[in-house]
Each structure stands twice: as C-alpha cells, then as structure tokens.
Description:
Chain A has helices at residues 2-22, 86-100, 120-130, 144-153, 191-206, 208-212, and strands at 30-37, 40-47, 54-56, 62-64, 72-78, 106-112, 137-140, 158-159, 168-169, 172-176, 182-187. Chain A has 214 residues and is α+β, with helices and mostly antiparallel strands. Chain A has a five-stranded mixed beta sheet. In chain A, strands 1-2 form a two-stranded antiparallel ribbon. In chain A, strands 3-4 form a two-stranded antiparallel ribbon. In chain A, a hairpin with a 5-residue loop joins strand 10 and strand 11 (182-187). In chain A, helix 2 (86-100) runs parallel beside helix 5. The longest helix of chain A has 21 residues, at 2-22. Chain B has a single domain, classed as Cytochrome Bc1 Complex, Chain D, domain 2. The interface between A and B is small, with 13 and 10 residues.
Amino acid sequence: MRKLILGIIVLSVLNACNNKQNKLPILGNRQPVTKTVDGKTVVDTAYATIPDFKFVNQYGDTITQKNLNGKIYVADFFFTTCPSICPVMHRNMLNVYKEFKADDNFRIISHTIDPKYDTVQVLKRYADKMGLSGNSWWLLHGDKGSTYTIAKSYLQTVQEKNPAGQFIHDGFFILIDKQKRIRGTYEGTDPKEVDKLIADIKILRAEPEQALAK
Amino acid sequence: MKLKLISGILFLLTVLIVSCQNDGQIEFYRYYSGGSAIYQARCQNCHGAKGEGLQQLIPPLTDSTYLKTNKNTLACFLKNGLKGEIRIHNKAFDGEMPADSLAPIEIAKVLTYVTNSFGNKLGTINLQQVQADLIKCR
C-alpha cells in the first residue's frame, strides 16, 4: 500500500514536470472569436500572428512568409556596422545556428535596420565571414518602412537614430511557431537566455501541433 | 663581526630586490585590473569575453606573435582605429575597427590587460611607453 502511494506521488511529480515543459506560452495580443461549430456557438481565441512580408536575402532571393511555411523560426534585428550589441547577439545566435543547421524545418532570419549601407552584397559578405552556408540563416534586406513595420509585429521597437548617431534597437531573439505565433522572446546578448531559446526550440518542435503542421 | 656585516648586507640586498620586484608587480596589477574594466566596457562586445573575436568578422586577440610584433603600434590602433587587411593566426581580416576616445593611461591599461590575457604574456605596457608610441603614429 505504501509502495502504491509512493508510486502515485512519484508519477504525479514527474507528470507535473512534464506538463510544465511540454508547451510554450503564446505571446502577443489575443482576441475572442465566436464561431459556430455543429450548430453550437463556441468562443475560441485568435492569437496575434506575424503578417505577410517581402524581403530579399543575402543570395538575392525574394523571401516572403511562404518560404517560412511549415518552419519554426527565430527573428532578430541588427546591422552589419553595429559596434555595440550586434556582435554579442550574433556570437550567441551562432550557437542556435549550429544546433539546428541540419533541420530544414527551422530558420533564422536577421533583418537589417540599416538597408542603405547593408545592401545584399554587404549582407552576403557578412554571411560569408560569419561562416554561414545554405539556407538556415537568412539576412534580410528591405526598405526601412517594411522592416520597421514587421518589427512592431514581433513586439520590437526600432528607432531610426539617436543623437549620438547610433541606432537603438532591442537585442531580442523572437521565436515564431509554424502558425506564425510568437512563442518566446529572449535577450540575445545573454548567453543563458540563448541557451533557454535552444531548449525552447526543442520543446516547441516536440509539441504535437507543431510536429503535424506543414 | 665580519659574518654579521656580510649577512647584514645580504639581507639589505634581498629586501631591495624584493621591494623592487613588488613595485613592478604592483604597477602591473594596477594596470591589469584597470584594463580589465576598460576591456569589458569598450572592447568585449566585439572581441569577446575570452578575446575570441567573431568568426572572420572580428579578429581574436589571442595571436601572441602578432601582438608582440606590433607591440609599439597597438596604441595607435586604439587611438586612430584600424583599417585594411591584417593577418591574425594566418587568417586575413579586413574589417574596420573604429577609433576610440581612450586617454593614453586608459590605452596603457587596456593594452596591459589584453597582452597579458587570453594566453598572451607580454608584461606591462605603461603610460610612458604608450605616450612614446603615440608620437610615432602614422
């Protein structure tokens, strides 16, 4: 009898841990949606999603949201001549890249917030020097307006220039699931947060909803 | 009597040597610890906490041979920035390091830190050396 109770306790503790690890939160604004299913009215939740976009990657290929269908991805904002936090961010992002490079259902997209200087050629050079190959990590070029608009949908703030002449931007990595929903934001300059991002990507990949989505 | 005199002289000599060494050591640690703080604030973002650099974009600070060969121009690199190709660990780097507004004493401290960290061991680069080096900047 005592063994049984102990067994139940152990199981429930294990289960508690599992529950915690099995699902990531869904971030961003949400709205109730009333739908009619089988003649009954049900209330569902509509989560904020990333709207469609159109940018060009370091190879000169046009990238829209279609290219990310069926993929989990991480987004960030940077510029190649950034002397402050970008080298730290991309030193950390490199770990994410190495971890998931072989997974074709995973991408990293880095938007430049200085499209005037960071032309496609400049982005390609940057990618080469970073040692990036293939399509796992895209550096995206687009006009300032579209980049700044898309940044807002990732809950980011990017400002043009501060009086000191430097761009200000948040150093966040944003995790997006296959339904284009925001599942996590991570301080890209903090190696511990980036370790958590790597762990979270693994959790997200294992969610049944993600595994099935195409 | 003679023995006492000799041992007395020897004792004084030892004290002198030890205290001189300590002066050098103290100067080194003063520069090194000050340099560590400057490094974290001004250099670490790009060059990394372990001086590891970033791929082929930002050179590591671990090439002792390069640092030794260029010991007398390092101060100028910090003051005026660095442009053009350099070879570190036999790999080419052609990015640009921006000039920084460090004072000569800060340059001396941070150079002492860098050239005695990350596996480097070049000893103290003090203010006098930096001032002399800065005059010769091209």
